[in-house]
Amino acid sequence: MSNNIKKLTLLHSNDMHGDFLSQVVNGKKTGGLAMLSDYITRVRQDEENVLYVIAGDMFRGSIIDSEYMGLSTIDLVNLLKPDVATIGNHEVDYGLAHLLFLEKCARFPIINANLFVTLNNTRLFQPYINVKIGGMKILFIGILTQEVLATARQEKVIGTFVDIEEAAKEIGIICDNYRTTDTDMTIVVSHIGIEQDRRLAELLNPEWGVNFIIGGHSHTFMDAPEIINGVPIVQAGTGTDIVGRFDIEYDKDDQVVKDYKWQCVPINEDSCTPDHVMAEMIGRYQSVTDAKYKRVVTRLARKLTHPSREQETELGNLYADMMQDESSFDIMMFGSGSIRKKELGPLIEYQDMVENTPFDDVVWMIEVTGEQFRQMVLHILRDDAWLGETEFYQFSRGVRIVYRKSTHSLEEFTFNGEEILPDSRLKIGIQNYHYKNFDEFLGIPLEEVKTNRKPRVVATSVNNIVEEYMATHQGLDAQVEGRLVILD
After folding, report:
1. Distance separating alpha carbons of residues 367 and 2, to the nearest angstrom
2. How would residue 160 be classed by pLDDT, with cut points 50, 70 and 90?
3. What is the torsional sign of CA 5, 109, 174, 17?
4. Are residues 280 and 303 in the same domain?
5. Domain boundary at 218, 252, 286, which?
6. Higher-confidence residue: 161 or 300?
7. Are residues 483 and 413 in the same domain?
8. How many CA within 13 A on the CB side of residue 205?
9. Does residue 183 sit in the same domain as residue 312?
10. What does the alpha-carbon distance between residue 198 and residue 192 come to, in Å, rounded to a whole number?
11. Residue 453: which CATH number?
12. Is the Cα torsion angle 227, 229, 231, 235 positive or negative in sign?
């Protein structure tokens, strides 16, 4: 039996989305960067070999992040001292050029193997990093697939590997070139969602020696690793109120992971006390944003909820109706993922409003036939929708869609009580992000739709409309009323 057993503690976060501040949940102070920082610091003090990894989407979700276009986030995450991070889809929300600027401000390595300039095939980021710790060498590889990078695909000179097979191939290339006999563990840090992680694991050649996949994007809470093709896959939900933790025993002589334990550790006052340096840094940013954003916009009739992207919700109906009210189009299709809070109100401050819809966007009006609208709806409701891997929509008032999963059919399809016929004509409002990715998100060619009527921008800011509507309508309410009914 080998006596050369090394221990490694591997902490990991994903999809923090600017979740900087602690909240009180069930009577306990929970989450926030100050509490998370304290936990990471204490683990580094208590354990011999500790690494901290971030699997994408540090940005978006809070005023502190958006007000400083991510610079505040990099400044705060620098205090966490991650050993490696990969980028997520929201890292490019402020533009790829700005992301490259932010990378220069980071005092930690940001890796990605498959973002490159199409002109000369130059990678934008370091694709991997070898971290040496406690006599071990750990190879980290960063992966982001095209499916989750719709924003960056609007920048034509930027490319990604087209599919998960190409991503797996790239991992093999890196392993073959940079994983020498001295490499002890290989860890893929991905931001592609749990379904894609499963597919990726199936495609990995065991000879490449990938030991773990640390993922993000789908905000998956897990009780235990999911093992596919011998590779454990983990993810730590979303926000800063939990952190993933591996405790690994590695046999240095036989070069194998001898044993490991994994858990998601709650970050709350039972296990943490706030890091005062981090708290002070956050306070400096918060004092600036509070002065600008802590003003009341409206009071709703009650708290409204958005529990899931893949269903009709109260907040979804409210936002779709606000956008459609007195507009030049018949139906607003509001992106479910544009609504970032699971509940809102009854008192809404400007900060709440902006944090709930941080992706302020223009609104396009298109005209479709009834048959095209049917194709769009069937594409939205395809089987992949229930895996959380596709775009989903909230519909404004007057729409009635009843869909049966088992037969993939529409049992009701009406607008204002009238059946939507194949030759009907409907004017649809959609946000710019969805317009720019129309073919993929809605399942029909935009060029085909353009022949009906030339699309035009009908509003330059979603949040301008939301703020004005809320400010002039007190006591707003919304119900889930059967606009979209899903049958098994």
Report:
1. 70
2. low
3. positive
4. no
5. 286
6. 300
7. yes
8. 13
9. no
10. 10
11. 3.90.780.10
12. negative
Q: Which H, E and C letters describe 104-156, residue by residue?
A: HHCCCCEECCCEEECCCCEECCECEEEEEECCEEEEEEEECCHHHCCCHHHCC
Report the domain count for the chain.
Answer: 2
For residue 160, give both structure tokens.
Answer: 């990604």
pLDDT at residue 356, as a whole number: 94
Show the tokens assigned to 472.
């002039």
77 lies in the same domain as 215: yes
Compute the average pLDDT of residues 149-156. 56
Same domain for 336 and 267, yes or no, is no
State the pLDDT confidence band at 221, using cuts at 50, 70 and 90: very high
Query: Residues 250, 374: one domain?
Result: no
Task: State residue 146's pLDDT score.
Answer: 65
pLDDT digits (tens, 9 = 90+) for 108-143: 999 998 777 777 777 889 999 999 999 999 999 999
Mean pLDDT of 98-114: 92
- Cβ-in-10-Å burial (0-12, 13-18, 19+) of 255 comes to middle
At which of 266, 286, 306 does a domain end?
286
Cβ partners under 8 Å of residue 175, min gap 6: 139, 141, 186, 208, 209, 210
Structural domain range at position 402 = 295-487
Which pLDDT belongs to residue 99? 87
Q: Are residues 246 and 375 in the same domain?
A: no
Q: What is the mean pLDDT of the chain?
A: 92
CATH of the domain at 270: 3.60.21.10
Tokens (6 digits) for 316: 């979804």
pLDDT at 247 over 60: yes
pLDDT of residue 94: 85
Task: Specify whether 128 is located in the same domain as 49.
Answer: yes
Tokens matching residue 12: 């990991």
